[in-house]
């Protein structure tokens, strides 16, 4: 199997070839390694490889596992492989090794997937771009001058660039859906608690973070979710392991009640300007869904976007402060001496002065939004809206400029962080951090499943994703709808030439 033949198949396709004996696991493994060695120097998607360990692990894979022999990559964040590096995109953890294997990684192995390496992420997964100071910056395979997004930017670059058919990813505020939208991929964020995060974590960011994958096909996403879902021992949510995600693709969904929105309640308070190509993508998706027999109505999500953005950033500040304390404990380096990027340190300093009262009030705002969306879904089965406000930004466009980093450094002055919070810096942070991507945090805060569908490409050759949000726990309906749209639009033809072997 050569690289071009390897790239023509999704994960399920490769697994089927292996099962039928048309190609061996070794041949698929060799093709994947060759693709990575040839193209990763340009794509810069991986921060490290583990070919020899993966080759050894492949010898014990159950041939009946659903994805036996299929190559994948894990993210350099949360997804721990025992005794191996896990840097969280940070120089401060460059030498740290995970003491245990995560439940998610164990289930990935049980599914038969071969983990060939780890993908790039911004420091601590904090940005919607992947430009960490300590590691290479991945490029968007559609146009190397543009970002693949973040925080799963390395994963998206690897899949869109044809290195692997699917790559593990995580989403705490859009970090699966944003890179999927920028790179023309399918990205599903499952419901809160659906995928375990033990044993190092019970929940991350109070349950806002959910891990899954970016894929080229809907069936790969469904098959993976079938394999990894369900609580692990000691997990905080009573979510049993379920089946039927793959079977949900076998028939189209019944006619759905679909709310269509341009997301103004979420974007207007942040001063977001919606790119005409994004508007066009949503409108085209609405027309396609109507043509498939679904019932559409224009209706906005019933939430206060400014309050929601502030609530999200409030918990964000608190958790970054805790993350630096954890890194200090793990490495033995005082927080003040950690090799951390200026923006990360500034966020942590603000978080140190965040009143516990405000932290708890923010979580109550999460609950209010979840209740409002629960009522909304009594009227509508799903919500259709943008993923991002514009196509992929250029590399470096959204990274804090030098003057802003100098301002952040001033937060080291005693008393200034508290004054900054009182002066409304939280609102300014929300506008700076979220104005390009104000539509994805809602599902993280409410816990709902949401997905990005690659339904549009601009005249300039950049993909645009369209988001569909479902009610809590309703991944099967989302996946069935995604499969219906995939068959109708045939988005596989939109893959960049590198992912088609051209």
Textual characterization of the structure:
The structure is a single chain. The protein has helices spanning 3-7, 11-19, 25-43, 51-58, 103-110, 153-160, 177-183, 218-228, 264-267, 276-291, 305-331, 342-352, 356-379, 402-409, 416-422, 425-434, 441-446, 475-489, and strands at 46-49, 71-75, 114-119, 166-171, 186-189, 210-215, 257-260, 295-298, 382-386, 450-457, 463-470. It starts with a helix and ends in a 13-residue tail after the last helix. The mean pLDDT is 94. It is 40% helix and 12% strand. It contains 18 helices and 11 strands. The strands form 2 sheets. Strands 4-6-5-10-11-9-7-8 form an 8-stranded mixed sheet, sandwiched between helices. A 3-stranded mixed sheet has the order 1-3-2. Helix 12 runs parallel beside helix 14. The chain is α/β, with parallel strands linked by helices and 502 residues long.
Topology diagram in text:
Layout: H1 3-7, H2 11-19, H3 25-43, E1 46-49, H4 51-58, E2 71-75, H5 103-110, E3 114-119, H6 153-160, E4 166-171, H7 177-183, E5 186-189, E6 210-215, H8 218-228, E7 257-260, H9 264-267, H10 276-291, E8 295-298, H11 305-331, H12 342-352, H13 356-379, E9 382-386, H14 402-409, H15 416-422, H16 425-434, H17 441-446, E10 450-457, E11 463-470, H18 475-489
Parallel strand pairs: 2-3, 7-8, 7-9
Antiparallel strand pairs: 1-3, 4-6, 5-6, 5-10, 9-11, 10-11
Mean pLDDT: 94
Query: Which spans have pLDDT < 50 for at least 5 consecutive residues?
Result: none
Give helix % range: 40-55%
Overall geometry:
globular
Number of helices: 18
Sequence of secondary-structure elements: HHHEHEHEHEHEEHEHHEHHHEHHHHEEH
Q: What structural category characterises the helix and strand content?
A: alpha/beta
Strand order of the largest sheet: 4-6-5-10-11-9-7-8
Q: How many strands appear in the DSSP assignment?
A: 11
Strand portion, in percent?
A: 5-15%
Gap between N and C termini, in Å?
16 Å
What's the gyration radius in Å? 21 Å
For the largest beta-sheet, the strand count, sense and barrel status come to: 8 strands, mixed
Note the quaternary state here.
single chain
């Amino acid at each position: 199997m050569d690289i071009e033949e390897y790239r023509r198949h999704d994960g399920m396709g490769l697994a089927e070839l292996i099962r039928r004996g048309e190609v061996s696991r070794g041949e698929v493994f060799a093709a994947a390694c060759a693709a990575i060695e040839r193209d990763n120097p340009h794509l810069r998607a991986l921060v490290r490889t583990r070919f020899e360990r993966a080759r050894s692990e492949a010898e014990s894979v159950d041939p009946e596992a659903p994805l036996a022999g299929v190559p994948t990559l894990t993210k350099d964040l949360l997804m721990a492989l025992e005794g191996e590096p896990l840097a969280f995109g940070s120089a401060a953890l460059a030498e740290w090794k995970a003491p245990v294997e995560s439940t998610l990684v164990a289930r990935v192995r049980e599914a038969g997937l071969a983990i060939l390496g780890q993908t790039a992420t911004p420091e601590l997964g904090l940005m919607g771009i992947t430009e960490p100071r300590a590691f290479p910056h991945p490029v968007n395979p559609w146009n190397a001058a543009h970002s693949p997004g973040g925080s799963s930017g390395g994963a998206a670059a690897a899949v869109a660039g044809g290195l692997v058919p699917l790559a593990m990813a995580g989403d705490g505020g859009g970090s699966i859906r944003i890179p999927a939208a920028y790179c023309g991929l399918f990205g599903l964020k499952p419901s809160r608690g659906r995928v375990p995060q033990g044993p190092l974590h019970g929940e991350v960011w109070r349950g806002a973070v959910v891990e899954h994958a970016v894929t080229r096909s809907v069936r790969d996403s469904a098959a993976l979710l079938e394999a990894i879902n369900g609580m692990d021992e000691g997990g905080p949510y009573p979510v049993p392991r379920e089946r039927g995600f793959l079977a949900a693709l076998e028939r189209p969904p019944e006619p759905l009640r679909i709310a269509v929105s341009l997301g103004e309640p979420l974007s207007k308070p942040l001063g977001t300007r919606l790119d005409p190509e994004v508007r066009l993508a949503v409108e085209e998706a609405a027309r396609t869904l109507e043509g498939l027999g679904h019932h559409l109505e224009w209706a906005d999500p019933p939430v206060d976007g400014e309050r929601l953005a502030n609530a999200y950033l409030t918990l964000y500040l608190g958790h970054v402060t805790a993350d630096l304390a954890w890194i200090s404990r793990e490495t033995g380096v005082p927080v003040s001496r950690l090799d951390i990027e200026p923006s990360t340190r500034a966020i942590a300093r603000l978080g140190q002065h965040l009143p516990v009262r405000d932290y708890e009030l923010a979580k109550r705002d999460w609950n209010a939004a979840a209740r409002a969306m629960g009522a909304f879904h009594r009227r509508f089965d799903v919500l259709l809206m943008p993923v991002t406000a514009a196509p992929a930004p250029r590399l470096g466009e959204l990274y804090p400029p030098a003057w802003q980093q100098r301002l952040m450094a001033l937060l080291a002055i005693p008393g200034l962080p508290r004054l900054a919070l009182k002066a409304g810096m939280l609102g300014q942070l929300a506008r700076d951090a979220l104005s390009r991507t104000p539509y994805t945090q809602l599902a993280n805060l409410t816990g709902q499943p949401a997905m990005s569908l690659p339904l549009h490409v601009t005249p300039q050759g950049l993909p645009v994703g369209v988001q569909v949000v479902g009610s809590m726990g309703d991944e099967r309906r989302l996946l069935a709808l995604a499969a219906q749209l995939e068959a109708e639009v045939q988005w596989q033809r939109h893959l960049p030439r590198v992912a088609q072997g051209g």
